[in-house]
UniProtKB/TrEMBL annotation:
Cofactor, how bound (note): Binds 1 divalent cation per subunit. The enzyme is active with manganese, cobalt or cadmium ions.
Amino-acid positions noted as binding Mn(2+) in the UniProt annotation, renumbered to this chain: C71, H356, E398, D428
Keyword Metal-binding: no
Organism taxonomic ancestry: Bacteria, Bacillati, Actinomycetota, Acidimicrobiia, Acidimicrobiales
Species in which this protein is naturally found: Ilumatobacter coccineus (strain NBRC 103263 / KCTC 29153 / YM16-304)
InterPro entries: Aldolase_TIM, DAHP_synth_2
EC identifiers of the protein: 2.5.1.54
Name of this chain's protein: Phospho-2-dehydro-3-deoxyheptonate aldolase
GO biological process: amino acid biosynthetic process; aromatic amino acid family biosynthetic process; chorismate biosynthetic process
NCBIfam families for the chain: DAHP_synth_II
Length: 449
């Protein structure tokens, strides 16, 4: 079996690798990969082990995972404001979830490296022309010309550099006072005051406020207490472009193990999860916590083999299964999988991606998702876990802190005619800042019920 065979950072090259760009100039590609291989790692092995320990707590039902960020990060929309606003929303959601679920929230951004996109077709038809599909800013440019869509290896280096700057700012914000509990809650109170659904959320927000007042009365000042003013936000992305991931894979001097130092956590997408494929081969050998998307066609037999291949030592927190079946399929589709994995004894984190199974094209022609479907999928996910006695470990969502109009619904009842107003994503539609905080309140209600 593949998991027993020797592994090296390049052993994936012997396997079929789906979704790789057709780089026109292999010399330039090798040059870029060599440059990246000589750059410092973006993260350190010890941080990955710390995240794995936290995720082990999620697997055991003692913590909740919030994994969130862009569908695809952009080279153009890259600014301190953009990063700060995304982080702010993630922190707000985390406090609402921590209070209502009653366990710590493990925060993982789809940030600082989430650039590459799998596509259903290698080509896109534009008029009479067939041009290469857009594969994310790490590969090409979305402009619909042949030249813009030509994969450019220089972009790999730019993606590394942007990831380094993003991570640097994330570290500064999360350790430098921005994440102070009282401050984040004050933003949530502003949100509640301005929200059309305000009354619905007021009770939960004032419960949190009372808890904070109680702490202050006991002499616990959040600003002076590192555990309340500093947070850990880990980074993650889909490990899609395997040459890039290999170039950042380094041996940990402490343990001698290999780590993919492009992010703390990496996941395998729905389109590249073949058991004998290159993506599974690559990720089985790195020490990082890893994830795999689980779509509606997944069978129990496949899933057990996947667990055996990716986590043969059955380390809690090593493997997160991210289900994305669609709101109508999740409850019945998930139950047999939960049963099979539980019976196998594999300690996995179960997370719900309520986005990718609920995408449709609106009458306006825009690709979108409805807030109600997103919530419905999470509802089905929670019910399936309740019925099987397993822990609904977390959510995995595409969001931005900005006031975009990409997903329908939410408390402001965004409709199809508004999608054009601020539709800014370069790939899938994201929840905007308000819809994201809305979602956290609604998930809190679901879990408390
Ligand atoms: C994604 O997470 O952006 C994505 C492409 O998901 P999936 O692999 O589940 O389709
Ligand atoms: Mn997406």
């Amino acid at each position: 079996m593949s998991s027993r065979e020797p592994w090296s950072p390049s052993s994936w090259q012997e396997r079929r690798a789906g979704q790789q760009p057709h780089w026109p100039d292999t010399g330039a590609l090798e040059g870029s990969l060599k440059t990246i291989a000589e750059m410092p790692p973006l993260i350190f092995a010890e941080e990955c082990r710390s995240l794995q320990t936290h995720l082990g707590q999620v697997a055991a039902g003692n913590a909740f995972l919030l994994q969130a960020g862009d569908c695809a990060e952009s080279f153009e929309e890259f600014s301190a404001d953009n990063i700060r606003e995304k982080l702010r929303v993630i922190l707000q959601m985390a406090i609402i979830l921590t209070y209502s679920v009653g366990v710590p929230t493990v925060k993982v951004g789809r940030m600082a490296g989430q650039f590459a996109k799998p596509r259903s077709s290698d080509f896109e038809k534009v008029g009479d022309l067939e041009i290469p599909s857009f594969r994310g800013h790490i590969v090409n440019d979305p402009t619909t010309t042949e030249a813009a869509r030509m994969p450019d290896p220089e972009r790999l280096v730019q993606a590394y550099n942007q990831s380094a700057s993003t991570l640097n700012l994330l570290r500064a914000f999360t350790k430098g006072g921005f994440a102070d509990l009282s401050r984040v809650h004050a933003w949530t109170q502003e949100f509640v005051a301005a929200s059309p659904q305000g009354q619905r959320y007021e009770q939960l927000a004032s419960e949190i406020e009372r808890a904070l007042s109680f702490m202050r009365a006991c002499g616990i000042e959040t600003e002076q207490n590192a555990s309340l003013s500093e947070v850990d936000v880990f980074t993650s992305h889909e490990a899609l472009i395997l040459g890039y991931e290999e170039a950042l894979t380094r041996k940990d001097s402490l343990t001698g193990e290999w780590y993919d130092c492009s992010a703390h956590m990496l996941w395998i997408g729905e389109r590249t999860r073949e058991l004998d494929g290159a993506h599974v081969e690559f990720l089985r050998g790195v020490g990082n916590p890893i994830g795999c998307k689980v779509g509606p066609t997944t069978t129990a037999e496949y899933l057990i083999e996947l667990c055996e291949t990716l986590n043969p030592s059955r380390i809690p927190g090593r493997l997160t299964l991210i289900t994305r079946m669609g709101a109508d399929k999740i409850e019945d589709g998930l139950r047999p999988l939960l049963r099979a994995v539980t019976d196998s004894g594999h300690p996995v984190v179960w997370a719900c991606d309520p986005m990718h199974g609920n995408t449709f094209t609106a009458p306006s022609g825009r690709k979108t998702r409805h807030f109600d479907d997103v919530l419905r999928e999470i509802g089905g996910f929670v019910r399936a876990h309740r019925a099987e006695g397993t822990w609904p470990g977390g959510i995995h969502v595409e969001l931005t802190g900005d006031d975009v109009t990409e997903c329908l619904g939410g408390s402001e009842e965004l409709d199809d005619t508004q999608l054009d107003d601020r539709y800014q994503t370069i790939c899938d539609p994201r929840l905007n800042g308000r819809q994201s905080v809305d979602l956290a309140f609604r998930v809190a209600e679901l879990i408390r019920d």
